[in-house]
Amino acid sequence: MARPSDALTLDTPAQERLAADLLGWGAPRPQADRGLAGALREQLETGLATLGEELEAAAARERRGRLLVTKTRLDRQVCDGLQLDAKPFEHTRASVRGILAHAMIERDWDLDRQRDPATVVAEVWHDEASRRPGDPASLSAWMNAQPAPEAAALQAELAELVAGFREVWPALPPALVQRRAEEPVAVSLCEGRIQLFGRPDLILDSRRRDDRARALVVDLKTGRPRPEHDRHELRFYALLVTLAEGAPPFRWATYYVTEGRHEPEDLRPETLELTARRVVDTVGQLVRLSALTDGGARPADEAALRLRGGGWCFTCQREDSCKVAAQARAERALSHPDAML
User: Which residue in 29, 93, 110, 239 has its CB near the most CB atoms, within 10 A?
Assistant: First the structure.
């Protein structure tokens, strides 16, 4: 007789759907092309080599002598102004809700769901609020500054998210599945001058080792869905895992916690190749901007910047003074008048 830890128990119809549609439980895995990771690395190295000495100079200007490529820098590729002058991160209710939801879901998993969601939330809240209370820019400071009614309302909302996650996600048997949460993944390129770095929210690995692709990469989202943006972030994680582990995941997916819904993509080498090209393009932008600014904060020639307006302008410090951003707002007002009311 199998022990409980050796079997997947499905307690709700939602868990049955997720096990079939996302986890692919019981379905055959695709053959893992063991040459794919090497081919992607070669594609990256070849593309980056075309940047020549300018890449070496740009990397030398960085603090550790290497250019760091993250999902954030990839997101900012759309506009030189955004890449240079993005607004500094500030904690908001939405961002804190997302950070805490991730931590609470992970804690609930670690505890094998033996405590009610409200207790899990209270424990994580206490831990996070106590971590760095003296730092005014910290998550702890934000949490401690909330009036009691607002803090209680957020905790109640988080308890609902944890309960909803339990409803949809089955407990994963550790004898069969290795779960890795927010584990750092780093890949060095060009003799260390480039480092790709990310922390996928969740990597689920089969304990079975064979010639099949068996990893599942999941990005958890608690905010408003941004399909194209979310896909790009997730594909970067899939590329990182492929390069770091020498084999691709069989699937990667964005899971929208609030909605209890997932958007999966199955393994396609072409998708990873497109993402590798996006990495090369972003590094090219960073190298070009490094030369324009000579490692400083402002470009020597503002006219040389490639500016583009769009939905990202609100995250840029240039928004109020940028003519391109103003033009984008005006065009949006004409094409989507209801959204401007």
Answer: 239
Amino acid at 180: R
Q: Say if CB 279 and CB 285 are below 8 A apart.
A: no
The CA-atom distances, in angstroms, between 161 and each of 92, 219, 224, 253, 259 are 18, 16, 15, 19, 9
For residue range 20-48, list pLDDT tens digits in order: 999 999 899 998 888 999 999 999 999 99
Burial of 192 (0-12, 13-18, 19+ CB in 10 A): exposed
Count of residues making up the chain = 341
User: Is the entire prediction scored with pTM above 0.90?
Assistant: yes
DSSP strand E in the chain: where? Answer: 67-69, 177-181, 185-189, 194-198, 202-206, 215-221, 251-256, 261-266
One DSSP character per residue, 55-84 reads: HHHHHHHSTTSSEEE-HHHHHGGG-HHHHH
> Distance (Å, rounded) from C-alpha 341 to C-alpha 339?
6
pLDDT in tens, 255-277: 999 999 999 999 999 999 999 99
Helix, strand or coil for residue 242?
helix
Question: CB neighbours (10 Å) of residue 182?
Answer: 14
Q: Which residue has the tokens 């980056």?
A: 48
